[in-house]
Here is the input.
Amino acid sequence: MNAMMSSAKNFMHGVTSLVVLILLWELVCRAGLVPPIILPAPSDVLMELFNEAGWYAAQAWYTLLITLAGFVCAVVGGVLIAVALVSSRFFERYFYPLIIAFNSIPKVALAPLFVIWLGTGSEPKILIAFMIAVFAVIIDTVHGLRSVPPDLIDLGRVLKGSPLSFFLKVKLPSALPSIVAGLKVALSLALVGTIVGEFVSSQKGLGYIIMSAQGSFDTVRVFASLSILALMGVVLYGVLAWVESKVIAGRRAQD
Here is the structure.
């Protein structure tokens, strides 16, 4: 109960700060202190969203689907790779350095290659979102699987269960808080990867709107797209934060 009240208070504080910021932004713009082409007024951005609501909804839906597809691929691939790293010394010794080296390559530099290989459809954008997000899943899953309390490991050895049963009933539940924390980071990165992909090659999506609006110096449309992206990111993060709270509550109930 206290945790829920604390979360509610933090949410209200955040909303209050956002409202104050928007009001100050509106006042600055209406006073003519900043040219509209540099910083449009929030009311103009809201009017743009209202007038083209259906179009923005369609573009946002496309971006959301690509983000979720890349995120799901990153979760599945990242968890499987992490399990292989923890379970196999051979895999860890020879493939972990390659994974780290590949992660150090800026994914923006790889995006044109993905377009050449996969075309201009959804596939390269999903792949970019996957490549940017998967490393966070791998790192946090490995950390979680290696942080299982020694007494639980000893208990599993005493009971002499199968490796698969021990993994599913002991290791995985113990690692869930770390895994979910990694998913929260990965989801934000997947959204970034989707926008990068839409910047490179796309005919729809919020990233496409931003790039096309840039060419015509339509900052109102850019800010409208950024507002939707911000809202999308907050909602997705909130969903995963809720999942994390349920996972932690379940762990405490088991303990």
Observations:
- The chain has ten helices and no strands.
- The CA atoms of residues 203 and 209 lie 9 Å apart.
